[in-house]
Specification:
With 301 residues, the chain is of the alpha+beta class. Helices cover 16% and strands 34% of the residues. It contains six helices and 18 strands. The two termini are 51 Å apart. The model is unreliable at 1-32 (pLDDT under 50).
Length: 301
């Protein structure tokens, strides 16, 4: 083990244990030395299950040859060690469990800017909510596997998904459909806006709400939910002397676009009303032309 990657220090206590797992210790005794693991060390590999590649938590299992794996993976390998194929039995690796108690580890996302250090048994919980963890691609057309920070996702959306980027805080979105009497199960458009030094995604989707075709527009913020709440936006659609207005708060791209859609958190226009707004005013309905206008503002705190 490379000692340059470890720092010895005193810690007062560290809570450990996860739901449904054994609580090995409630705290580290005062004065006990802790092992501070610096970024880019290999010590994480000692506590990585060779089957699922996740961090191992008590009870950590051990085969007669000393190979370890997490308890939940025993059944996945039919109680046979994945390395030497010996019967695993019910041997616990207490030494590794006690080592885990003493570790202070950097957040997995330290390369993206997180400078926090955590006891081994608190690290996973932090990483599930770390503001530096990468975002999923917000493109709604498919479950794109790309993840990254906001700048890399902006480049990805423009280069790979050909999404238009506009620098303004107002928008005028026009949706045209040649056959207004039919609607795809899901059809969509996405536009990016650079506004107040931040980036927003305007979604416009046509989908079936029950058996009724509807059109929906909503805004998502490219950043954390706490920052999204600093902004407001409104959407307006109308025609033939009538209009609908929606006002709300953008959702973070941490929230999947289908979750936003299914929660109806946006402007929803039934097809019958959309046809009326499109300019036909009850007349010829050969084409749907729906115009959605809106603006984004920053709340004064």
């Amino acid at each position: 083990m490379d000692k340059s990657n470890l720092i010895m220090g005193d810690v007062e206590s560290a809570s450990i244990g996860l739901d449904g797992q054994e609580n090995l210790m409630s705290k580290i005794p005062s004065g006990m030395k802790s092992v501070v693991v610096l970024p880019d060390s290999d010590i994480d590999g000692l506590l990585e299950c060779p089957v699922c590649s996740n961090a191992m938590y008590p009870p950590i299992q051990q085969c007669p040859s000393g190979h370890t794996l997490c308890f939940n993976c025993k059944t996945k390998v039919d109680n046979k060690c994945p390395i030497c194929r010996k019967e695993i039995g019910n041997i616990r690796c207490l030494a590794l469990e006690k080592l885990a108690v003493s570790l202070l580890l950097p957040c997995t996302y330290h390369r993206l800017g997180c400078e926090e250090m955590f006891p081994y048994y608190k690290k996973l919980k932090h990483e599930e909510q770390c503001v530096y963890r990468p975002y999923n691609c917000p493109h709604p057309g498919s479950d794109c596997p790309v993840m990254g920070d906001v700048p890399s996702l902006l480049a990805h959306l423009r280069d790979n998904h050909k999404v238009d980027l506009q620098t303004c805080c107002t928008f005028n979105h026009r949706y045209v459909k040649q056959d207004p009497c039919s609607v795809d199960v899901v059809s969509w458009t996405l536009t990016l806006f650079n506004c107040f030094g931040n980036y927003f995604c305007l979604h416009f989707e046509a989908f079936l709400l029950g058996n009724e075709p509807v059109y929906m527009a909503f805004l998502r913020f490219m950043g954390e939910e706490s920052d999204a709440k600093k902004f407001g936006y409104c959407l307006e659609v109308g025609g033939c002397g009538r209009k609908m207005i929606w006002q709300g708060v953008p959702r973070s791209i941490r929230t999947h676009h289908r979750t936003v859609r299914d929660s109806h958190d946006g402007l929803i226009v039934p097809r019958s009303l959309a046809l009326y707004f499109s300019g036909s005013c009850g007349g010829d309905k050969k084409e749907l032309k729906l115009r959605v206008t809106g603006r984004i503002w920053k709340d004064q705190l």
